[in-house]
């Protein structure tokens, strides 16, 4: 059995299923609020056009929601199927947000989803409106709990290690639920969903205007979409800034990879654009970039909120930097091995009921616990995340994010101050920005997940230890099944969506 | 309040919650049962649409309960979550595939340009309603028959069969529960349709279906009860040592009279509901059925985990067997989760209200023909 292959296939499968799932979730997050705003306008004004507009976007929401649910199911169980060791090692902390997500969010979504779609003639208009808002709130609550779980993996807090059970156990629920990393991750991720929802509404409305169809419906949708989009894209940038700050504080290797920063520096600049040097290796004297444009001081400001601050590079983290109090990875690996040995000795002593040895080893373990996960590595260089993929994903995400702010401002200006129908360039830009939103969101996800490698849980458990011992063949086969099934469902979803859009607002109910 | 409970009491409390969720999920399997009838019960497209729309307004509740069942097991009994899902990989993935295809089928079935065609989505629903339930029954049955695994010193699972869970398909007794669930789901579906669809000729066919499926359900269900009460079970002592005990589940039944009453009452309610459905086409029978199923399933789950019983026995390494004591979350986590669980009655209340508000009027042909309504 080739365990390395098994781990790689499990990573590939998790990436595949998460990327597919994350194609649908952001639209659900954003569109649900936009629909709720539209229905509120309908209830406030009594204008039947708003009802038609609401129902049109709702019909697209349902198509997207169904496949979001389908691809989401596996995410709930995949921690067990493919990451069983992880599930035991931190299940006492990680399982709780997943269960709470089910209790608080999924039932709210599923119950009121049925009312929202089938209740137009069955419940009062106000109860219907409430149901639509509750679907939006439920979707966002769901995102909150799953991102708490994810945030905890990036910055594990509120727990202690119990050597008797060989796992981490929760010691403070509120530390876990309100961790700054988790909260900023939640805000940034849902904001990206809001922007995708807005891009979707603005882009499709632009298509109607380009086709000279459904003008009133499209323009009204565009005003709501662009206003929502401008506000949320600005918030996206702000929450991104907070996210970058949190990454610098708690995952310095990830930040260094995102910026291609090998040697740490004070007054570090932010790379606005750069092409990485493919021949660059850690520790050599090759230049980091073949070409780059840097904004001076910006990385120090972004990462530490101070222009003079020192930002650690990959070489500082691997080889250490005594001036800035950074321990070399080799020392952390040695400490980690001591911790692992102490755990093993503790368990042997427990079997023999040797209380003295148990206490001794527990003390050693606690002393070196902060380096526990490093004990699973052999070489310091193993702690470096994939640099190119982190760097390019990060820069794609940020550039597109900036573009979206400009786009929404432009659209809003032209629709409120001019007749936007006469500006096809703006309309085409809006239409073709829909895929850019998805690319940016997936790139963001890749930065978050690839950038934290080699860790499943930062400093505690490397990815290769977290996986179930399955054998590569099993996971390769299940990966293929998922790839086929999800691709077929995605094709179906896109085809149905395009037809539904083409039918226009009158054909929706 | 919960922090004052002992660790064991919290573990028992969470086993009760898991058992309740199992009961609710089995009741909600009427959705799967209904899907398994799509090719036999309706006589025309209109009738099929009525069945699908009737089920389509509830399917997400069943789906969500399945997800919550996974989440609750992860939070409350993480070692079971890790061991069973990671170990019996293929049987769980097969079940998940059956549910993934369900999730798109209601919405996409009748949509234009749906790529796979209406029939394919109906077959997806049928697969979920039949194979999905049977596989789930086989997987749950391993809680009684045992599974092939051992745990290493870090409690990491090592599966001892190359079939990764599919070996459970080769244990004939596992099919007793599997088919009992399959027919039970069809029975609840029939009662649900009686309550939810207003269509005279369909009601007559449902009554006939109920009679036939009752006759098929009873031998499997009674066979399952006979099997578990006559078989040896897996007990553990105060120091956690697991041993095999003759008539363990029967002993549990006698040792836990409240549970025995729950199971008995549950079975009686199911039979009463079936009588009312078959002979009276009673529209309220589904409610009685619901209470009966929840009580009986919950009771059976309680027999499995309480009274010093290993609820996930290993047949290859007996001492690796999982009990509610060695597989649970910590005292702190179980306490925190218990506070969260206090919201469950509120959740059940809004579900009931929404269900009541949506079902005030039965589904009929007129509604299916109303173009202003959203249909599946």
Give an overview of the whole structure.
- The complex is a heterodimer of chains A (509) and B (376).
- By secondary structure, chain A is mainly alpha-helical.
- Helices cover 72% and strands 6% of the residues of chain A.
- Chain A has helices at residues 3-45, 48-82, 84-118, 125-154, 173-177, 180-210, 215-250, 252-259, 298-304, 314-319, 329-351, 355-367, 387-417, 424-450, 463-466, 472-503; strands spanning 159-162, 167-170, 265-266, 270-276, 289-295, 310-311, 455-457, 461-462.
- In chain A, strands 1-2 form a two-stranded antiparallel sheet. In chain A, strands 3-6 form a two-stranded antiparallel sheet. In chain A, strands 4-5 form a two-stranded antiparallel ribbon.
- In chain A, helix 1 (3-45) crosses helix 6 and helix 2 runs antiparallel to helix 16 (472-503).
- The longest helix of chain A has 43 residues, at 3-45.
- Chain A is globular, with a radius of gyration of 25 Å.
- In chain A, 55% of the residues are buried.
- The mean pLDDT of chain A is 94.
- The termini of chain B are far apart.
- Chain B is mostly helical.
- Chain B has one domain.
- The longest helix of chain B is centred in the middle third of the chain and has 31 residues, at 200-230.
- The interface between A and B is large, with 84 and 78 residues.
Note the topology.
The complex is a heterodimer of chains A (509) and B (376).
Chain A: H1 3-45, H2 48-82, H3 84-118, H4 125-154, E1 159-162, E2 167-170, H5 173-177, H6 180-210, H7 215-250, H8 252-259, E3 265-266, E4 270-276, E5 289-295, H9 298-304, E6 310-311, H10 314-319, H11 329-351, H12 355-367, H13 387-417, H14 424-450, E7 455-457, E8 461-462, H15 463-466, H16 472-503
Antiparallel strand pairs in A: 1-2, 3-6, 4-5, 7-8
Chain B: H1 7-28, H2 30-35, H3 45-56, H4 59-76, H5 78-87, H6 89-108, H7 118-145, E1 149-151, E2 157-159, H8 174-196, H9 200-230, E3 233-236, E4 242-245, H10 248-255, H11 257-280, H12 285-305, H13 331-341, H14 344-358, H15 365-369
Antiparallel strand pairs in B: 1-2, 3-4
